[in-house]
């Protein structure tokens, strides 16, 4: 399944005349083209589809979407399990009783501070 996923811009550079960003999707970082969102800045959230940032997004909406995607298992489906991938690439095997990547990912998202709605904001 292909999703347009929100992520936080962690770095920006010019690569062969193209503005590129490093974008964090809840622990998985990817290189993303900023050609369609040239005004994106470090710390802002963008919606990304097939390697291209399509638009900027406010933090509360980005976090709500990421939390929902995580609950539905769509982030792991889209990006894979980064802990399992690193384990596989290193040739290491998990110890019996070790926390799996999916469990660690869920714990990480549970620990992310959620935006507090201001009274009367709706």
From TrEMBL:
Alphabetized Gene3D superfamilies for the sequence: 2.30.30.140
Low complexity: compositionally biased ranges: 97-112
Pfam families (UniProt xref): HupF_HypC
Segments of this protein annotated with the region Disordered: 80-122
Highest taxon above the source species: Bacteria
Family: Belongs to the HupF/HypC family.
Name used for this protein in its record: HypC/HybG/HupF family hydrogenase formation chaperone
Organism: Actinacidiphila acididurans
């Amino acid at each position: 399944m292909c999703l347009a996923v929100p992520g936080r811009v962690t770095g920006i550079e010019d690569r062969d005349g193209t503005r590129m960003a490093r974008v964090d999707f809840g622990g998985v970082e990817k290189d993303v083209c900023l050609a369609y969102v040239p005004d994106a800045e470090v710390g802002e959230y963008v919606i990304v589809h097939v390697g291209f940032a399509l638009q900027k997004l406010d933090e509360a909406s980005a976090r709500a979407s990421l939390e929902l995607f995580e609950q539905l298992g769509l982030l792991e489906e889209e990006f894979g399990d980064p802990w399992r991938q690193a384990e596989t690439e290193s040739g290491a095997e998990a110890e019996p009783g070790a926390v799996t990547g999916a469990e660690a990912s869920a714990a990480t998202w549970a620990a992310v501070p959620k935006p507090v709605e201001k009274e009367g904001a709706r």
